[in-house]
Write a structure and sequence with these properties.
Layout: H1 19-26, E1 30-32, E2 35-38, H2 44-55, E3 68-71, H3 84-98, E4 104-108, H4 114-122, E5 127-131, H5 135-148, E6 153-155, H6 161-164, E7 170-174, E8 183-189
Parallel strand pairs: 2-3, 4-5, 5-6
Antiparallel strand pairs: 1-2, 4-8, 7-8
Helix pairs in contact: 3-4
Length: about 190
């Protein structure tokens, strides 16, 4: 690989700032299918603004009832609710749980645990198990379950899946942008 000439570049002075706070200020709460996903640094005003913006949007409007709030400490785990496939799964879970068909949820490749938390937040009758190969994601997902007081338990070993749920319909949440986590499954069992 050779260049015909040295690329030109310029340097600009960047003001000193707290980069964590700067990045966090740009990350808004997510409103999707009756859920509002917020991070610990979001204020109630941030959430109100996100809900107001969602009401003007047809696709992710929370509908007539109050949205279900979930607090996420994302850290390095995938699953903030921003990705379209996560939003689609939230919509599917919401419908399945509200219609009474979903009581045991397996979120395979759970990341932050957002899908299991969402299912559990909708009904006391739901239990969820998350599985991930990333031990950091497991720690974050379990911390998120603790923050939200929900029923989700997250494990690092994918071999546990066979011992937790019996076979039943499986719905795929394909995440092409993360080749190591090529397939994340929501497993829904009959009550």
């Amino acid at each position: 690989f050779e260049l015909s000439s040295t690329p030109r570049y310029t340097g600009d002075a960047v003001p000193d700032r707290d980069w964590i706070i700067h990045v966090q200020s740009a990350w808004k709460p997510i409103v999707a299918h009756g859920f509002v996903l917020r991070f610990p640094w979001h204020t109630d005003e941030d959430v109100a603004e996100a809900l107001s913006n969602a009401l003007s949007s047809e696709s992710d409007s929370p509908g007539g009832s109050a949205p279900t709030a979930i607090t996420l400490q994302g850290g390095i785990a995938f699953g903030t609710g921003e990705h379209p496939t996560t939003r689609l799964c939230l919509g599917f879970l919401s419908a399945a749980v509200r219609q009474g068909g979903a009581r045991r949820i397996l979120d395979y490749g759970c990341g932050s645990g957002v899908l299991g938390l969402a299912a559990c937040a909708l009904s006391e009758d739901v239990t969820a198990v998350g599985v991930d190969i990333d031990v950091d994601a497991v720690a974050i997902a379990n911390a998120n379950a603790g923050i939200n007081g929900e029923c989700t338990m997250v494990y690092a070993s994918t071999r546990l899946c066979a011992h937790v749920c019996q076979p039943s319909p499986v719905y795929a949440h394909v995440e092409k942008s993360l080749p190591c986590y090529a397939l994340s499954l929501i497993h829904i069992s009959e009550p």
